[in-house]
Amino acid sequence: MNTAQKPQSPATVPAAPAGAEIIDLAAGCFWCTEAVYQQIPGVLSVTSGYMGGATVDPTYEQVCEGNTGHAEITRVVFDPKKVPLEQILETFWKMHDPTTPNRQGNDVGTQYRSAIFYADDQQRTIAELSKQAAAKNFRVPIVTEIVPAATFYPAENYHQDYYNLNKSRNSYCAYVITPKLDKLGLQS
Question: Chain-centre distance of CA 123, in angstroms?
């Protein structure tokens, strides 16, 4: 499907300001991940999208079919002087189950896998150390992939800021996202 045939165009990705870092995280449904990181002081922007697959410019429908190889991800742009990557990753390990392959709750498929897509060797080292530290909190091994970032494809506009725009009218928000924010002690 070419861009002209898409039901809705992908979102525009905000530019990262000077001194900011970017980390791409897959922790199940990107609506949940986005809602969590929007609450973290020092996070400058959060964009839902797709990464890690072979299909160029995938649509949500294609990714949901599970054949593109892409994961639903959240691109987190943050100020490392206000919130270090280590803290971003501490939240990552707490907000989802990194021990279940290709699944988060009722969301099943490779598009819901747990992954950290790092931008450079320093991020990779921090991610590996963070994974080792987090492993002590789980009874079974962590299956989270730690892999180099690939092409980021922003999701369609209607996926952006999803929780904030839909929390009063979508039961998924009420039954999945709000309890997750409450569990993490974040304002919902």
Answer: 16
